[in-house]
Every structure is written in C-alpha cells, then in structure tokens.
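ok so i was messing around last nite and threw this chain in just to see what happens. nothing serious, just curious
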Amino acid sequence: MTTKCNRIDWDAVRERLARFQSPGGDYGRQNGERRNKVFRERAERLARRGRQDAAQTARVPVVVIRVGSERYGIELSDVKQVFSRVPITHVPAMGGLLLGVANLNGTLRSVIDLGVLLRVTTKRSDAGYVLLLRASGKMLGVWVEAFEDVCQIDLDALEAMDEVATNPVGGFMRGMTNDRIAVLNTELFLDHVAERCKLDAAKTR
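result:
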C-alpha cells in the first residue's frame, strides 16, 4: 500500500501567514477588534465593581442612641461595649458633665452625661445605658437614655452641620442624616470632652 503525498508550496504558506498576521490583514483586524471588545468589557466590569465597592464602603454600621427627644449615631467600630444598669459612683467637686466613675469590665472609667454636653434635657435613671467609646487610644463611658438600634448609614450623604458658637455639637459631628440622626465624630468628641472636663475641674477649685 502506497501513500500519495501532495507537494507543499512553502512560499505560498509563508505568504498566507504573513498576510493574516499583518495589521491590515483579515486575521489581524478581527483579532484586534476582538481584543478591543474584551478590554472594553473588562473596563466596564471594573468600573461597575469600583462603584459598588465605593457604595459599600460609604455605608457603615452606626449605633443609634436617644438623648431626650434627639437621636444620635456613633460608628459601631468606635463602640467597644454597651452596658445596661451600671452603678456609677459620684466624684465630689466635679461639674455636671462628669457623672462619676463606673467599673466597666474590671476597669474604672469616667462616665459623662451626654445630655449635659449636648444641652438636651434627659430623665436620668439606672435604666439608662453606658457606652464605652474608644478612638485614638482614648476610652470614655457615655451615659445615654436609650439604645435604639444599629443601622447602616451612608456617611457621604450626611448633611453638614455648621460649627457656630450657639451650636454645642457642630464641632464634633460628622453630619445629619435625612431622618434627623446626628452622627458623632468620635475622635473629635473625645477631645472635646477632655477639654471640657479640664475646664469644669478648674472652675471647682
């Protein structure tokens, strides 16, 4: 049995390959169009993913508390723990802002009345809550009248609050939500409380 082989024209093969692989050839043009389409689709997917990631990043869990008739929000990451019915020992010769000290997880912590700081009338009782806040290495207990919920808030959509002399909270608030929750900037808040306590202590001497 014999096998019949056709003679290969190598010159024709090389010419055909060169034509297909050239930028102006059918193969090169089709491959370039396909590659551009893939790049466009990939760029669109990355752009959509970037917008979704940004939206997810902007929404953060916030602890919503009530002080009098007002509602305030504190980022959950700044709340180390929430305590209920905590005995607070009064410290003599201190101003109204500092309620006293409390044993929070085996450590004595200062506890302030958030209502006094915010100039909001509250009904102080043992049924309230103490939030242990932390930021930049500082910790402070904050007594609040009621703990409402944890909700997701878009920080980028907060309405700015002007810092003016008659506004006791504008200097340490991130802003206000459309349903009237004022969100605290915990770091600025703790700095403000520290300065206020120093002033109150100086007045009692």
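not much to say yet. The longest strand covers residues 59-67.
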